[in-house]
Design goal:
By secondary structure, this protein is α+β, with helices and mostly antiparallel strands. The chain has one domain. It contains 4 helices and 3 strands. It has a 3-stranded antiparallel sheet, with helices on one face. The longest helix is centred in the first third of the chain and has 45 residues.
């Protein structure tokens, strides 16, 4: 009987000790999912920009419009010739990883059209 009473709080102590680890793992998983979402958003925006180039419209405006409203402030769009590059930073769950998880996608609209 004495042994059971001595171990009665052991599982509570182990649970409290594991909470910080569970929190860190949860934040890491959320950050990775946010990074994957940013990569998908960058790819879709770059593709929309190249379609705009093919249609002779504003590629930067088309790429920005293809992004969800919250992502527009975290995006950088560069148009050089027939190439569109879009960089999207994920929402900052862990601010020190913000730049590390930024995703860049590039799309090319092909050669210049013949006259």
């Amino acid at each position: 009987m004495m042994r059971l009473r001595a171990e009665a709080g052991q599982s509570s102590v182990e649970l409290v000790a594991m909470l910080p680890l569970a929190l860190v793992v949860g934040l890491a998983v959320m950050s990775l999912l946010a990074a994957r979402t940013a990569a998908d958003q960058a790819a879709a925006a770059a593709h929309a920009g190249t379609i705009a180039l093919i249609q002779d419209t504003d590629a930067e405006a088309a790429a920005r419009a293809a992004l969800p409203r919250p992502a527009r402030a975290r995006a950088a769009i560069r148009v050089r010739g027939r190439r569109v590059a879009v960089t999207v930073r994920p929402p900052a769950r862990l601010p020190f990883l913000d730049a590390a998880f930024a995703s860049t996608a590039t799309a090319d609209a092909g050669p210049e059209p013949s006259p």
